[in-house]
Amino acid sequence: MLARVLERIGKGDTLVVVRIDRLARSLSHLLEVIERLEAKGAFFRSLMDPIDTSSPQGKFTLQVLGAAAEFERALIRERTKAGLASARTKGRVGGNPGLRARDPAALRKVRLARQDGYMERLNETAQDWVPHVRRLRPDMAWEDVLRIVNGPLPRERQWTQSRLLRAVNAYVRDGFLPPTVLDRAGRRETDDRLPAIVAAIKGADPDITLQAICTRLEAMRERTPRGRTSWQPSSVKMLLERAERLGLLA
Question: Which of 41, 131, 182, 217 is most solvent-facing, going by the fewest CB within 10 Å?
Fold first, then answer.
């Protein structure tokens, strides 16, 4: 549900929740969601908490929460280091005895815990990539899907193709995505590639403006049909019309 909301929300919109615990599982997840909203020019408001990113007071509260989260992480790191150092001075070796003995049951338990941790991290970023993969695969090649996924994301949150494929395989294995998304992409005519990309951007946000699509294409470093790096709304409009004729627009 959250992924669909974040996919459809647009510039100037405000996401309103009763309490912040109805939106995010952790403070870091909350800050990530709000960063995604800010990247789209949208705002966040909690009715029961003093957070409203459209006001200076709300932004200040958010900054305080971010600083508190970083402080908490620093404290945990320091306490962990101090605990390990104290244990070493007393001759205690850290770690799981079963792992040191290579016990199969202990190894299996650790492997499952790692898989659970990986899936939890994937769930926190699912809104960035799952809707695109579900909608575009296998009709579009992975390299183009990757460019569309990374288009609105800040550099530090962008995906590599191998990391995206690993995530998709995990979601297919657990039944969150259909196996067909892993099918080989059909061959597309060269002239149809740009209309397909523009249609995919439009499909993810039906209210997006022509100028915003231009900005997205430039962020993806996609060249115009004439090989230029700067896009104009008229070129995007032409590609959208071609996409419609090809049946690429819903």
Answer: 41
